[in-house]
Each structure stands twice: as C-alpha cells, then as structure tokens.
Amino acid sequence: MKEIIKMMSRPMNWLEKMRKKKKASLRHFIGLGLVFCWLAGLVWWPTLAKAAETEPVIAIKGARLVTVTGSDIPQGTILIKGKYIVDIGPSVTIPPEAKVIEAQGLVAYPGMIDGLTYLGLQEISMVRATVDMRETGNINPQVRADEALRPDSVHIPITRANGTTCALVAPTGGLISGMSALIKLDGWTPEELVIKVPVAMHIQFPMMRGRYRRSSRSVSGSKRIKELKKLFNEARYYEKRRLAAQKNLLLPYPDFDEKLEALLPVVHGQLPVMISVYAEKDIKEVIKFVQEEKLKAILYGVHDGWKVADEIARAGLPVILDSLYNQPSRWEDGYDALYRNPAALVKAGVKIAFSSQSASLAKDLPWHAAKAVAFGLDQKEALKAVTINPAEIFGLGDQMGSLDKGKLANIVLTDGDLLEIRRHVKHLFIEGKEIDLSNYYTDLLHKFEKRLKEK
Amino acid sequence: MKWRKFVGLILAMVWLGLSPLGAGQDLFIKNGTLLTITQGIIHGGDILIIDGKIKEIGQNLTPPKGIRVIDATGKYVMPGIIDSHTHVALSGTNEASVAISSEVRMKDVINPEDPAIFTALTGGVTMVHTMHGSANPIGGENVVLKMKWGKSSEEMYVPYAYRTLKFALGENPKRANMMGFSAQPRYPQTRMGVIAIIRREFAKARSYMREWERYNQLKKNKKLVSFILPPRRNLRLEPLVLMLQGKMVARCHTYQADETLEFIKLSKEFGFKIGAFEHAWEAYKIVKELAAEKIGISVFADNWAYKMEAYQGIAYMAGFCAKHGVLVSINSDSGERIRRLFNDAAKTMRYGDLSEDEALKLITINPAIQLGVQKRVGSLEVGKDADIAIFNKHPLSAYTRCEMTIIEGEVYFDRAKYLEEQQKKAAAKKPHKKGGQK
Amino acid sequence: MRVIRNYLVFLLVIGFFVSSLPAEKVKPTYAVVGCRIHPVTGPVIENGTIIIRNGKIETLGPAAKVNIPEDAEVVEAQGLEAYPGLIDAYSQYFLETKSPSGSTAQRRPPFSAPAEERSWDKTNFLVLDNLKFKKTTLSSLHKAGITTILVTPPQQIFAGVSTLLNLNGEKFPPMVLNDKVFLHLYFTTSRGGYPSSLMGTVALFRQSFLDAQHYDLQKKTFLRFPAKVSRPEYDAFLERLLPYVVEKKPVVFDCANMQDIKRAINLIEEFKLNGFIAGANEAWRVIDWVKRAKNPLLVTVDFKPPLGSRYANLGEELKKKAEKEIYPRNPAELQKNGLTFALVSGKISNPKEFIKKVTQAVEAGLPADKALQALTIVPARLLQVDSYLGSLEPGKIANVILTKGQLLTKGCQVTRVFVDGLSFEVQAPAAKGAQAPSVNLSGKWKVTVVSQMVTMEMTMDLTQEGSSLTGRLTSEMGNWEISEGTLSGDKLTLVIAANVMGQDMELTFEGQATKDKITGSISFMGGSAEMTATRIPDKS
User: Fold this and answer.
1) Residue C502 or residue C386, greater confidence
2) DSSP single-letter state for residue C326
3) pLDDT band at residue C103 using 50, 70 and 90 as cut-offs
4) Per-residue confidence band for C425, with pLDDT thresholds at 50, 70 and 90
5) Closest chain B residue to A334 measured between Cα atoms?
6) Among A213, A218, A331, whose Cβ lies nearest the Cβ of C474?
7) pLDDT at residue A80, rounded to an integer
8) pLDDT digits (tens, 9 = 90+) for A187-224
9) Which chains does chain B touch, 3 or more C-beta pairs < 8 A?
10) Domain residues of chain A, as ranges?
C-alpha cells in the first residue's frame, strides 16, 4: 500500500508543478485525464488479477501433431492451461472458456531447444562493446552467463520466430569459460528468461581450424587435462581444509577463493562439465579424464566423433554438435566429415543435440539438423536432436522437448516440415503464452515497405 | 565495331591456346527433373551435351552411341551455381598498404589449387567472381573463374565476363574494425573521405586520359613527333580510364543506404557504370532508387550483425528487393558458405516469400547477368555451356545434397565416386595401422 | 727448446704473409696422375693426367700422351675420378642477412598521403657488401666438390644483384669473378609497406619496368633534343633498373611454385626481359609454359611441395609422397622435355645435402651425365663464364675435384679440390668422421637455447638409426623438423629446418653428446647461441 501512495504522489507533484508554471489549460486537461485513467486502472486491477489466477485455456485444434516422443497424430488437438499442456490427442474435449486456434493444415511441434548459443551475450560480433561471452584470462569458472543476459537483444525474437523456444546460453574462451544457463526466448528480465542455472561448466579444448590445412601448432590436449586435474585437486583440497577448519578451531580457515569455490559442484559430480573437444586424440583423453575424475560430462563440438563414436557411446556421454557451418580441418577426413558426423554418432548409440553456436544466426538451428539428415541422419533422430535430446541432456526431459501431457506448452505451429527452410512459423507458444512473431527484421521491413507506398 | 570484337576473340583464343585447353566433353544426362530457370521445369528430362555445350534438352532424347550417360532418375538437375562475390582461389585478397590500389589484378594471383575450389564444387558451384577485398576505397580488378578443380588457372579463367573493378565504402576502407598493427590511421577515416578520395582518383584518371588524347593528337604531327614524349604509363589510373570509357564496371562494396546513394551520384558525376553493389545490407531502404537506376545487388542471405553497418541487414532484404525489381544475387564471400548457396537461396522463401523459381534465379541467371555471362551460363538452355549441378532432392530443400557438379560437360565432382575413393583409402590404411601396432 | 719454438712461430707467421700475398705470385704446378678424367665437354679419359700450372689447366689427356713437367708436384690419383669443380648458380652461402635497414615503423609508407611512391627497401642492392667469410662453410663446400658459387641477395621484391665467387681461399676480393651477375627479383611482399600483397608486387614490377622504359626514353630524347626537352630528374632506382630493362642484362625471377613461373614468364614476355627462372621446383607442372618460353632455368632440388600447392594441402600422405617420389622427378622431367637447366641449392644451406638431393634426382630418372652438366658446364654458360669454367679443358681455370667413387652416386667422397689452381685437401671423412656413434640419443629431450637476446625452451624428439638422426623440435614457435643429423663418436651435428615468424631458415647445431646430455652451439644466419639438452626420462 505504501508503494502505491508513493507512486500516486509522483503524478500529483507533476501536476502541481504544471499549475505553478501556468501552462496551457489543454495540458491540464490531458494530465487530469491521465490521472483519471490511472485511477480507473487501479480500481480495475483486482478484477484483472483475479482473471489471471484462473489460468487461460487455449486449444490448438486440427493440426497434425508431431509429438516427438510418441507417434504422430494426423489431426489432433492440444489443450493448454496456464503454462502446461493439459491434454493432447486426436479427440480432446475443448472446454467452453478455451480460446480456440484453428490449425487445420498446420503442423505442431514441440519448440526447439538450441544446444549452445550466445543469445543475449552478443549483439554485434565485431563491436566489442556488445560482446559479453568471453572473459579475459584462462580460468573463469566463477562467471555465469545468466548474469550478463540482455533480454532486449534483437536476436531473441528473430530466433524464436523460426521455432526455437529455449536455448542454452554459454560463455566461451580460455580453458574454463564459466557457467551456462538455459533460457526460454520470452521474458522482460534476465530472471524471467532463465529456466535453469547453472546448466554446465564450460571447458575448452582447441579446435583444429583451417580449411583442410593442418595447423602447425600441435594440439596439446594432455597439457590441458593436466592443468584441469591440478585445479580440481586444488578445489577438493580447498574444501577439505575448510571442513577441517570448521571442526577444529586451531586450524587456519582458508581464504575464500571464487574460482575453487565455483568448481566445487563440478568435482562433486553435481554440476556437469560441457567440454568443447574436437580432435580424436583429445576426445579419447577427455573420456578418460571425466571417468577418472568421476565427472558428469557433456561433450561439445566433437568433430572427430565419427572416429571414436563407439568409445563415446560406451562412456555414455551425450554430445552437442557445434555449428555445421564449420569445416573439417583435415582434407583426408572428407569434405562432408562434419555433415555425416551426427549420423555416425547416433548409429553408435550416442545421444546428440544440435546447436547454432551463434546469436545472430541462432535462427538457423533447424537447418543444421536438416543438413545432417541430408548426410545420413534419420529425420526423426534429427528432430529429437533439437527437442527431446537437448531437454534430457540439460536435465529437463520431464518438462520440455515433446508434446506430452504435463509438459510446458512450448509449441511451434508451422505450415510445413519444421526442419525445412521453405516453411513458415505461424504460431508460437512459450510456456502457454502465444508469442508475437514480429521482430527487428519485420519491424524494419514494414518501415521501409511504408516508404514504397509513399507517392 | 565488329572487327574489334573479332580481334578480341582472336586474342582470347590465342591467349587460351597457350595452354592445353581441354575442349568440352560429351555427356548425356538422363531422366532428371530439369530446373531450367529460364524455361520452366521439365520432368523426366534429358540433356545432350556435345563439346561441353548443351546440344539438346527435352524428354525422351536418344543418346548417341558411346556417349557417357548419367542417370538422373529421381534427381534434380539445375544449372551450375554462380557465386557473384567471393575470394576463393587467390593468393592474397587485399593490397591494404595504400588506400587506392587499382593497379592490382586478381588475375595475377589466381591459385588454382585452393581447396576451396573443391569445396565450391561440393556445393554445386561452377563459376565464381573472385574479388579484391574491401580494405581500400578502390581495390583491384576482379576475375571470373570456372571451378575446374585440377586444371590450370588459364583453363579456369573466363575471358568473356565483364571486366570489373572493386570499390569499397564504409567501415572497411575506413579501417574501422582493425586492431593492432593494421589499425594505423590511414586516410580516409570517414565516409566523407572515402567518397572524396574516389572522386579525386577519377579526376586524376580523367586528366590522365586527356593527357594521352592530347599526345595521340600531337603524334599525328610528323614534325613534332620526334621529341614529344608519351605520358608516363600509370597502372593505377588505367583501370579508372577504362571505367570512364565504359570498358570496365564498378563492383562496389557498400552497407549503408546513404553511402550506396552517394556512390550512384558519383557514378553520374563521372559517367561510369556500376555492375552491382556488394552486400548492400540496406538496399531494402532504397529499393526505389536501385530499381530505377537498374543497379543490381550481390548480397548475403542472412549473414548479418557482425559489425555496426551490418546491424540493419534483415534476412528479408534479398527477397524484398527481388520482388521490387532489383536484380539480386546471393553470394558467399566465404570459402565455406560457398558450399551452401542453395540453402541460402532457399532462405529467401522463408524470409521474403519468393517462389522456387525466383529463389533459384538468385544463384544462377541473376549472377550471370551481373557478370555479363548470361549468354553462356546461368540456365539450362540449348547452346549454353554445360555447367550443371545435380542434387538428390530439390536444391531448395534443407535436406538436399549435391551429387554431381559438371563444367562444360566434364564431371568435376561426383559424390558417389568420391565416397568410393575415400573408402578405398580408408581400407588401404587399416592393415597398415595394425602392422604398426606390433 | 723455447728458442726453437719461437723460431718456428716466426717462420709460420712469415709463411702466412707470403701465402696471402695478392695473386700476382706464380701459383704452383701440379700433375694429377692416374685418375679417370671426366671433362664433361668431352669423352671420359681412363688413366689420365692433368697438368695444372699457374691457376690454369695446362693440358690433360691419357697418361701416355702427357708429359709431367719437372716443376710439377705430382698428385697421385690412382683410382680417383677427376671432374671440373661444381658450380652452384643460386645459393646464399656467406650471406649475412642484415635486418632490412630501419625498423618496420620507419619503412611504412606515410598513410596520410596514400602514397604512390615506392617504399620497398633498396639498400641491399649489392650482395658483396653483405658477405662474411666462414671457414666451415668454405670447407663444407669444398667437401661437396663445389668450387664456384653464385651468391644471391636475400629475399626482397627487388633484391639486388648477385656475386659469383670462385672459392679459392679466404678473402673475398680474390674470390670474386663477377659482382654484378644477375638482377634478382622475388614474388614476395614488403613487410609493413607497399606492396603488402603478391598482386601488389606484380603491379609494382610492371609499373617499375614501365617507368624504367619511360625514363630511358626521356633521357634519350633529352640528349637528342636538349634545347626542346626538359632534362629528366635523376632517379637512382630507375638508373639501377636500366641495364636490365633496356640493355637486357639477365633478370632472375625466384619462382617458388608453378604460378610464380607463369607470373615470371608473363612479365618476361610483356617487357621482353632477358629472364631466368630460379627455383622452378614445380616446373614439371607447367612444362608447356617452360618449353614455350625457353627461359634459362636454375632448378632447386629441395623437393618440398610449396605452400599452397595441392601436394602440400591435400593431406599428409600425399605431401610425404610428393616429397619422396613426385618432386624429385622434376629435373628428369625437364631433361626429358629437352630443356637445359642448372641444378642449384637455393634454400638448401648445406652443400652435402644439396649434392645428396641431386643424387636423389638422378635416382628419380635424371641421367647422371646430364646432372653433372647441370652442375658444371650448363651453369657456366648461364653465368657466361663457360670460356674459362665449367669443364676440364686446356686453358680453362683449374677448378678440379678429385673423388673416390663416381660423383652423384652414394658413398662418393671428394678427396681433393683445386680452385684457381690452388690445392685444398679435403678431410678424408674416413679418418676423422664417420666414427661409430658412442651413444644412442633416441628419445625426448628438454632443450634450452641461450643467446644474447633470448632464452628459449624447447622439447626435442630424436630417433637414431645407426649414426644418423631424425626428429623434431617443438616450442612456442612451432614444430621444427631436424632435416639432417649425424652422430660421429660423441660429435653431434644437427641441421634444423626452422620457421621463425613465417621465415624458413636452417639452423645448424654442433656439439657433444653423452647418454643424457647434449651441449654445443647452434648457428644460424649471422649468429649463434648456446644449446644444452637434457634427456627427459621415458615414463613407460
């Protein structure tokens, strides 16, 4: 109540000032009008709030439903109440209060989940002032992607307009880059965006870049592993010392170390590490490393995955692939090495997910998956790799990633195959809320369409 | 004027004759879905290729005896993709030490062994306009090549294309995004300076041209000729003279709408032709002017927001401009993107609502027109070069894959054969490895 | 005793002065007897005699037909082969690479005025200024049978002119045959200045040649019509170009790959230059061009596929095969196509390695006699010294080498070298070298290099087979291959193919080795540094 009084006092002051200055009476009139409206709003507010409590119900009717986890439903209905899918099937009774979306001829998919992006961390890649995903230094476990998120990034609405509803936002660079967050692509504040944080601690191994040219610098994965092992031991010892000091007052209490502190959940096997690793030898060493250290791990990138697919499968490690706009670094591997890598991994039994590895081109996620299909990946597996697989890899398989009763209503309605380029997203729901598909692209387009109409 | 063309042709032939130029080959492509670009779709169509040229297109053609037949049943056959702006197959991209470097020619630094040529083939690309970079307000002379992987630079060179000179406006010639060593200030540092320095060079070229005209006049006087010296040849100004004479066209790298318009003004001031604007991310803002001036653009489908001037580059741009009468081509500007130009063309259907036909034009006949080679390539038509790409699915589908790339009847990329060779190599390697483990 | 010793020292000093007096002094007379003579320009003579008098070959022929003069010192050469001294027509021995004058900052063109002025370094125009004598280099050249070398200026766009040396001693002036042999041009860039790209360099060549032509015309017209034409301003750079552009003195283009060869030929034809093509490692790939243009070829034998070549880019396997099998066929291929060429060392800085590579070319199909010609009479002709060098003929300068075993076969050893009629004994490798290695150095080593400027840490992997070693050095600066290594007793020599800041160079290490420690010094162009290595114990 106090706050409301405070807020009311502000326009009053403004009005008084106006009066003192003896401005035109028209302005008074507008000012008073505004106050009136505002007061009226206050009166109406409780009733609106009450309406919100009785959650809105939406029925998507008549679409082909691609549930991902179950079989497709040629024509069915999804019933959404509040944030969740409350019913789905070929024949669902639509309650009278439901807002009905006629979706005949459209296809409903679960919203896509991008395995790694820089959404909200990077606006214009070459303008340093707008880039926030790469901290200086080599060891930065203490930094968190969610603490630099910019909800107002133009890339977020552009991305969701192509069917992505959730994305991992990760830091990069150095050896330990920091912690990632899973966000939904709708929200006014970082807090509203974030679904889960931290999702993983990000660790980088060198990529052998270059077009078919072997880099002259040798890729020393083992050196990195040594460094990591040393750090992890330090973290364990740091905790040990602290526990000991807590019990025994005679022992010195260790100073707070932000980096080791941040590594504790990792060494305890609670927080997964996501290790960007590319070369065959490095992948093998990383597998050994995570097993020795008993870490929860996700592999990222994994360009040489097809060479060691069985070993990755045996270790039970999931893989998130990096952008397929990368190129293989060795001519011998074949021009299509990265394109057929996903199929080879799936064939060996590895759980994979795709990622756009971008902010400005995060919208391209489905097309990476489709490229892998062109080079041998089963289409259904590709679809899983942008929906249920990343959900499960991030520990949210029970909440998203498929069209299932009880899951969050993250739904895309398209006029064609979700992974195709030649199709349009017609409706989008994030946690039950229908999302406006307009974005920075369409705003600019419409602005200059207007110019054409001018005579 | 005809004799000139004739002499040019003879010269070209002599020049080409210097190296063993494989005359095109014969080939018969059978029963494919032919996306001809200019003449609609032919289902179950055949193409007869003789001497590297398309001799016949239609249904149920009979292949001549002994000709190599490629079965395209269930496949999509389209003209080879043309990349109107790239930097592959070169040793060096920029002469960045000076602001004006019109004396350099990409023709001098062709690298026929750049693996990106093969990469291009795997994406169905048969021809590229490979260009000087954008570090200079006036760069160098660009070159058009066919992606004949394994052949010499002379065999790749396309002599009948427009001669084009690279210009660049905005952040790059300003060196706005340069760091470290290359960040040393160089005139120009502003967009004002960029236009001013280009104007200055054209003014210089105009007086240089006049100097030569005066000399040629004087030369006719037999009394004077013994001690009248010709002007010093200036290689930096000569390309600009060619532009003033209409023998060379500008290809101008630009981002902002304003600078794009300024360059059009400059072209009118000096009377030179603009072949196309490169990138032109804000072309959608001035679509009226571009359509009226009949100036085409060679653009990205959606690669944007990498620098300030690319921040208003909307993915709808290519489609929007194409719909409003601008000649649009989609380029790669990259040795990687070059292998998925067909995906980029498809994006104009998602953003911009182009039809399949319109989208395919962006990577075939439109770039051909921009390079002045539309009579030779860019569509499947009788009499044109047999530059062809074959896809397993419709090339605009996200699920498609290039199966074969043919230039002048010769197969330069054959995925099936490639895989076979890869397997052979792998098989040859395996026992070797085991032997080493002993 | 002491007195005697002092007296001996006195005599030695006197002797030294006498022997180093200018060449007017009459040189000794030698009669080389009992050898098989390979005159190169004529048929082989069994059991021949060569009379060398006052620096020249006085006569040569079968023992029966040649009288041994009374004043001759007889050199018994039974069982040995006699050849003309070998000519390396494209090398960089004795060259001290000064860092190009001025710092890079100074050399940058003034950007505020987008310069048309040329800003490459013109100072290194004469090689002779940059030569520094090294006895080890001289003896290693002699050991390889090389008696004449063309020293080319270090890589720059307009690099300067080369100097031809006859390796007759320890001082440069007496060695010099010609100090303005060729003008050397490289398809390289000016670091930090204009031109910064290959295409810029090609444009600069064209503009400079045009300017030289124009300057010449200006000068000539002025001389004809001094009253009517203004005097052209003196241009030091163009003056230097005139002999090559106008008077058609030979210009050598260094061609690292096949595209460079075509670039060179295009320029040579456009400006009607008297052009030579050096390098030409990839001449076999553009054989039609080379055949048509008929430019003299100075062919290097390093057999490394150049950067950017498909043989370097398309996988390790192909690269290895190219270096082992494909590129060594280049000279044979040129020979088959009827082209004349000299074989030259180019970037190979070790004479022994150079001869080894020539031998490899012979194994790859180049007829041995053609290879020999390519090291003697052909370079002599190209250098326009064939009237007095390049073969064993009466009247020619007495550059003669004696070998055990035929030249360009494995195991061939040079035993004695005559240059300008002066005899140089070559250490018989059997006596001092080629001892059985005392230890096996295979394994990993931690290397510390200390020079005046830097201390560098590296790791070294060595593999020893018999007395020869191979391996690599790994450091922050990249991976450096050990291209050659020998262990003789405890004496270790390593030749390291290094790349420093994108610049290929060869480093030589010489020192002692024990089982776990190596000490010695590493020498490179114009400098040396101490190197120690300790063995990293093998864990497994």
Assistant:
1) C386
2) I
3) very low
4) confident
5) B422
6) A218
7) 98
8) 999 999 999 999 999 999 987 644 444 443 444 788 89
9) A, C
10) 2-53, 55-111+402-455, 112-400
Hey, are the CB atoms on C314 and B186 less than 8 Å from each other? no
pLDDT band at A30 (very low <50, low <70, confident <90, very high): low
CATH 1.10.260.40, domain A112-400, yes or no: no
Q: Provide the shortest C-alpha distance from residue A330 to chain C (in Å).
A: 7
Task: Write down how long chain C is.
Answer: 540
CB atoms within 10 A of CB A192: 12
**Domain total of chain B:** 2
- Average pLDDT on C503-525 reads 80
Residues of chain A in contact with residue C315, where contact means CB-CB under 8 angstroms, are: 330-332
Closest residue in chain A to residue C309, using alpha carbons only = A213
pLDDT greater than 80 at residue C291: yes
In the structure encoding, which two tokens stand for residue B44, read together?
A: 């179950």
Task: Write down which residue in B334, B353, B377 finishes a domain.
Answer: B377
Distance from the A334 Cα atom to the nearest Cα atom in chain C, whole angstroms: 10
β-bridge partners, A87: A79
A contacts of B115 (beta carbons < 8 Å): 211-213, 331
Chain A partners within 8 Å of B177 (Cβ): 126
Instruction: Provide ipTM, 2 decimals.
Output: 0.92
Residues in chain A with CB shorter than 8 Å from the CB of B402 are none
Q: Which of residues 256-285 of B touch A (CB under 8 A)?
A: 284-285
Handedness of CA C311, C314, C320, C324 (dihedral sign): negative
Q: Are residues B195 and B331 in the same domain?
A: yes
User: Sheet of A181-184: strands edge to edge?
Assistant: A112-117, A164-169, A181-184, A194-196
Task: Using CB atoms, pick whichever of C114, C207, C314 lies closest to residue B103.
Answer: C207
Confidence of residue C121 (pLDDT cuts 50, 70, 90): very low
Chains that touch A (3 or more CB pairs under 8 A): B, C
pLDDT per position as a tens digit, A356-395: 999 999 999 999 999 999 999 999 999 999 999 999 999 9
- CB distance from C113 to chain B under 8 Å? yes
CB atoms within 10 A of CB A13: 9
pTM for the complete prediction?
Answer: 0.85
Q: Which domain holds residue B19?
A: 1-79+378-438
When mean pLDDT is compared across A387-396, B8-17, B317-326, C330-339, the lowest value belongs to B8-17
**Separation CA A188–CA A157 (nearest Å):** 12
A71 touches chain C (CB under 8 A): no
- Nearest Cα residue to A392 out of A401, A405, A383: A401
Q: Which residue of C114, C192, C195 is in closest CB contact with B100?
A: C114
Q: What topology does CATH give the domain A55-111+402-455?
A: Urease, subunit C; domain 1 (2.30.40)
Q: Which residues of C touch A214 (CB under 8 A)?
A: 316
* Chain C interface, best mutation among B15, B94, B113, by max C CB count within 10 A: B113
Question: How would residue B212 be classed by pLDDT, with cut points 50, 70 and 90?
Answer: very high
- DSSP state letter for B104: -
Residues forming a β-bridge with C413: C404
* Helical (H) or strand (E) element with C474: strand C468-475
Task: With beta carbons less than 8 A apart as the criterion, state whether A297 and A275 touch.
Answer: yes
Radius of gyration of chain C (CA): 25
Contact A214 C314 (CB under 8 A): no
Residue of B nearest to C309 (CA): B113
What is the distance between the alpha carbons of residues B371 and B146, in angstroms, rounded to a whole number? 13
User: What single-letter amino acid sits at C103?
Assistant: S
The residue of chain B with its CA nearest to that of C232 is B229
- C217 CB burial (10 A radius; 0-12, 13-18, 19+): middle
Residue from the list C108, C198, C224 with its beta carbon closest to the beta carbon of B91: C198
**Chains in touch with C (≥3 Cβ pairs < 8 A):** A, B
Name the residue range of residue C41's domain.
Answer: 2-84+411-425
